[in-house]
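Our preliminary data section would be incomplete without showing what the modeling component actually yields. Below, a chain of 75 amino acids is followed by its predicted structure, encoded as tokens that our downstream tools consume directly.
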Amino acid sequence: AHAGAAARGDELLLSFTWRHLASLALQEGELAEARHGFAESLRIREELGYLVGTAPALISLAEAEPEPEAARLRA
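Predicted structure:
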């Protein structure tokens, strides 16, 4: 799905696939990879103006960040 979204230029779908891949990375303890994926998802959603998806992206990114950055993202 991720490669297909990138190939088609479907930015909204790409934001979702980045978030799901990042969730998998987080479950596997790959924090740097998780942060990257969550940050990409957030970046795309902000660029698209997809406001309803911005809050979940911030919360997801906070899960992969250490304090106090995690608290700042949740606020």
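The mean pLDDT is 96. The first helix runs from residue 2 to 8. Preliminary results of this kind motivate Aim 1 of the renewal.
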